[in-house]
Structures are given as C-alpha cells and as structure tokens.
Amino acid sequence: MVKKGTWFFDPDGYTRYPLYHGTNSYLLPSIQQHGLGGRDIITEWRALDLYREIAVLTKHDINDPTLRQDGSYRHGEVYLGAYEGRARGYTGELFGLIEYGLNFLPRSIREELLRRYPEIAVLFHADRWSIVLRLPRLHLADLCGWTSDDPCDRSSIGYRNEYLMTLASYRGTGIGFYAPTPTFRLRRMTRDFEVV
Asked: Which of 1, 35, 87, 180 has the highest count of CB atoms within 10 angstroms of its CB?
C-alpha cells in the first residue's frame, strides 16, 4: 500500500514515471550480464582507495564531499533519477575525479598506481562514452530513498509541482541539471532497463 500523498507512485506501488541511471559504455556489458546493481565495481576495483591515494599525493582536500559517506551520497550504490539530464551529468563521476587527479601526478607515479589498480587502468584506456539507462517501471520494494530506506520520503520524491515544472521547462534542452527531481537508490538488481 502506498502512503497518501506519494504522487510519484501509482496505487499499486509502481513508479508513474521512468527513472534514469548514468554510466559509461565500457561498463554496459557487465551491467547487461549481471544486471544493474548486480556488481559493486567501486568496491571490487577499490576505486575509493585509489582516489584517496591520489588525494594524498596531490595534497587534495581529503574531506572532498565525494568521499564523504555521511548518508547524502554512498559510493557503490546505484542512484536513479527521474530526469534524464541529471543522470547524464553523473556518468562515471568518481572515475572522472580519479582520471582528473592522475593528470597532476608525474607519469611514473601514475603508471605505478594504475599497475596496482588494473581494472581501472583498462577502463581509462578503453573507448568509452556517457550513456543513460532508462528504467520504465519499478516497484517501491525495489527502491530506497536518497537518504533513507523510505522511497516515499520528501528528500527522495520532492514535490509534484516542482517536478512537473522542471520537465515542462527543460525537456530536450539539457538545462535543469540541478532542478529538484525525485532521486532514489536501487535496493536490488534489475534487468528491466534500456539504453537511451
């Protein structure tokens, strides 16, 4: 049963609107094989460890918000948004920060680091581009909220009028990246997606 006022879900608990997830083309075969959310490559590939090493070597502020695990963002989780443009903006954010940080290091140090993180090295040398996955219909049981386990909390779904105005104003323009839109975390793996 869906709580009263949760406009984003129908009475049976399914999303009324599609959700989107940004990633990159290199990861698509793995997502197709294991499902979206079927693997946690951030942990498997030790991406945060590499980022922390780069942060120390470049004297970057280790309190960077992308490293915080304070409940507002959790690396390794699959985030879904109701706006395609926002999803496209988040494709490979952590890997982009790693790649950016590596550019500030001498070549010998970069090569040594990437030798210790071979999966990430392969990713950086592969042809890849941003892609967005569209998930047409998910159930409440498949989702967690942005900051809580409740997908119906206001931090996740926001307010209907803001969302509809965002869609009407920005559809097809690529603008509106920071506009308020419903955002969730995927609770369990799914194969119900398409590349857009």
From this structure: 87
